[in-house]
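The protein record reproduced below.
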Amino acid sequence: MESQSHVLERLRKAFRSGITLPQEFRRTQLTQLLSLVKDNEEQIIKALHQDLAKPKFESILSEVEIVINELHHAISNITSWMQPEYVAKNLATKLDDCFVRREPLGVVLIIGPWNYPLQLLILPLVGAIAAGNCAVIKPSEISCATDSLVAELIPKYLSQDCYAVVRGGSEQTKALLQNRFDHIFYTGSQAVARSVVQAASVHLTPVTLELGGKCPCLIYGRINIQAAAHRLVWAKYFNAGQSCVAPDYVLCTEATRDALVPALTTVLEKFYGKEPQKSPDLSRIVSACHFTRLMELLERTKGKVVIGGESDQEDKYIAPTVVVDVEEDDALMAEEIFGPILPILAVEELEKSIELVNRHEKPLALYVFSDESSVVKTVMEKTSSGGFCSNDGIVHMTLPGLPFGGVGASGWGSYHGRWGFETFSHRRACMLRGWALERLNGLRYPPYSEDKLKWLRWTTSAHNSCSLM
């Protein structure tokens, strides 16, 4: 097996050669990546089922189609993304070409998570390729079937001189982080993110962090309770709740809670049957370790389980669960749940709910369900989160035109579509000057005088800006 240092040297040599700079090379690699996904759809579905018992429907929706759409979007827009961006000029720079040029950063590292082991690895890779970088790709060893498949397919479809897969556990990842990269893109937990940032700081390497946090769902005002229950159940229990943007807890009035719980019961039975464990549409917890963590949270809660609560350790199954009478200091509110457990907190006033949300770290996503636009507007304007969606969950992250990323403890930076291209690009400020107007330029040369200063301030003033060209 090739050592990490040899892999990096090979990629650096390729990048220095300039092979990744032409648009045609980038387009070819993106097209090859598209072929990888399309040609191997059945293998991808099989690997995801082995790792998470992920239903085919969810695999296609959240791992295959979202990647295909991102690739089509990048291939269609890469020409415009690569164009220089001309900026406004003043009189002193009237004859100059002044523009922003997007340039690749170099050799980047992409570390993927286990919960969406294809999507959250390939989507940042799309941005890295589109921007002209070489990339080291590190899949999660926890989702081992997908890890193995990615390692097998990437060298078959992409340039081996420019893109490499490095496999292994935490020790191999720690060793990998000792190397100098030009950018690190990490998706995962806040705990590991701290180690990533610490390692990157040694080389002053910029980092994008896609983390998570406790994503709240506020339900206030007039509401279609049946529609709300359908969308909440789908967003929460998709992938067995193992989504960084899944609604983590609900805030609503007691009256809304009392109407919501029966609706949730009805919808859960409609979605997964009376025996959810037998449903082919419900994923499993990824590992015994994660199963144990979730069950310990359920054991420690002081709330009341009103739906679900059943589990099967051997099957890594936890039933879709709803817990009421939960307080802010409950065990279920201490950390991101990342599983099929939904606490409901009764808070009578919208303003009090907003205050509760704002006492915690800024989440990756925030949801509000209401038929009243004033409620939606109030929540949007008085909170902060990576993303915001009203009357639905998760779907905002499927649109390539919207940036996806956190704020504060839920993440640094963003990607998807143009935003991924920008994340992996250096915006180089360029001014191309000739020798004209030397008399005007002479105003800045010694010996200085008040008259020179007066004229120089006038020619460089923003009030004397010219057109972009």
